[in-house]
Amino acid sequence: MQCKKWATVVGTTFGTVSESSKIRVCRSCAVTLICLWAFVSLIAEANGQAGPGASGSDSCYLLNPVEVAATLRGPGVVVVARRRKDRGLDECQIVRTSRPGSLGEILRQFETEVPLILAVIFSDDLGSKGFELFPVQPGIARVEVPGLGDHAVFQNGDTALLLVASGPKFLGIDLIGKTPTEGERQDLIDLAREALATNFDGWQVVEYKIADRAIANDRATLETDPKAFAFLLFQMKRFDEARSYNLRALAANPDDADVMYLQGVIDWVLTYQLRSRIRARIGLPPQQILEDKALCTDVKKKNQQEVGEGIAVLTKVVKLQPDSDDAMAYLSLLFRERADYECDDNAARSADLKMADSWQDNMERTRTENLSRRDRPKPSPLLMPLPPAPPLPTTASQAAPRQ
Question: Among 21, 69, 108, 145, which is least packed by CB within 10 angstroms?
């Protein structure tokens, strides 16, 4: 099949710096293997490279991952593909696709999918000189964006490329895979504003302006994939809503280990937060077991369903994925939650603390084995991987640590 239209992706990919770094995506046609080969190779290249929490001018993490996922809203997962620096430019392509997988699996997806791409370029020291790398071509209109950095413009054509200079820093953001709407152009502006406000550290964003707007105005699109929507809500710390949508995803796919794992995590977060609030109210230290029977009854009434549910789904995850040390860690935490409200049954409390210790021992052994495996999986290419377990207590009498 012949592609009818090509779009050149942002960064040095706009053609003035490095011909070898160009990648092209098919648009207005079905995506063929040849069209996407260069792009998908970036995903393979991303494995083992910097990920969440990376420091410096890593363009994949200059923008807040929650806000990026909201900008690329729709069904599927958001995958990171990044390039190393090339002549002072750091470039990255962040893509929403139906599901993660191996290079071959992702490649096969693009036989029928046209990916939605957020392309990002960044330089620490180009400043306004960066505009010279993006000359206006025929069919491209340059529109000023007032009040953004020292100088900002949209270059409007098939895509809307936002270019921003602020002091010595230069940022480019482009949404590729569709003709951006005015709302999507506003999303790009807000991504740039957040980058400037946090000194280009997306992890410092605490208000999710784009995600909140997407939920308010485009919930129907987000609801087409309750699994992805639940995870977005979880990252926004809207845990009750996240639990509701994750239960929808679990009902649709009861054997999806990722959905079950997130359900167990949400259950622990909700039960731990409630118990912690009660402990704080009475001034009880985290390491001291709850003894007040009235409070135990209150905690049990409110937490019992989620604790039981979390233990059930995480036990199933471990059966499906025997090397899931994080699932074992959350099982240990949930058994400690249950032991904490068993004031009126010392035998049950003792049994649950033993189970917590047992799961912790299993976790430590499995984690050691995983680290020693030569064939252990490479780092996830997902923009927001599933949350790892927090540090576990060192003795059975300690309560669960703060998240």
Answer: 108
Q: 229-372 in CATH: which number?
A: 1.25.40.10
| CA–CA separation, 175 and 397 (whole Å) | 52
| Three-class DSSP category at 76 | coil
Per-domain residue ranges of the chain: 5-218, 229-372
Least reliable range by pLDDT among 42-51, 298-307, 381-390: 42-51
Instruction: Give the pLDDT confidence score for residue 67 in this predicted structure.
Output: 96
Which of helix, strand or coil describes residue 153? strand
Interatomic CA distance for residues 114 and 310, integer angstroms: 37
Kindly tell me if the per-residue pLDDT of 27 is higher than 80: no
For residue range 144-161, what is the model confidence (pLDDT) as tens digits? 999 999 999 998 766 789
Give the list of residues 6+ apart from residue 1 with CB closer than 8 angstroms, or none: 29, 30, 32
> How far apart, in Å, are the Cα atoms of 168 and each of 150, 256, 274?
10, 46, 47
Cβ atoms 272, 337 nearer than 8 A:
yes
Q: In what order do the strands lie in the sheet with 169-176?
A: 77-82, 90-97, 116-123, 169-176, 160-166, 151-156, 141-144
pLDDT at residue 2, as a whole number: 29
- Say what the pLDDT of residue 82 is: 64
Q: How far apart are CA 149 and CA 152, in angstroms?
A: 7
Reduce the DSSP state of residue 330 to 3 states and report it.
helix
pLDDT at site 95: 86
What is the per-residue pLDDT for 12?
34
Tell me, what amino acid is at 244? S
Q: Is 123 left (phi over 0), alpha (psi -120 to 50) or beta?
A: beta
Q: Of 85, 68, 316, nearest to 210 (Cα)?
A: 68
Pick the closest to residue 263 from 297, 295, 234, 283 (CA basis). 234
Neighbours of 335 (CB within 10 A): 25
**Is the per-residue pLDDT at 190 higher than 70?**
yes
In 3D space, the residue among 382, 5, 9 whose CA is nearest the CA of residue 173 turns out to be 9
Q: How far apart are CA 27 and CA 177, in angstroms?
A: 7
CA separation for the pair 258, 358 (Å, rounded): 23
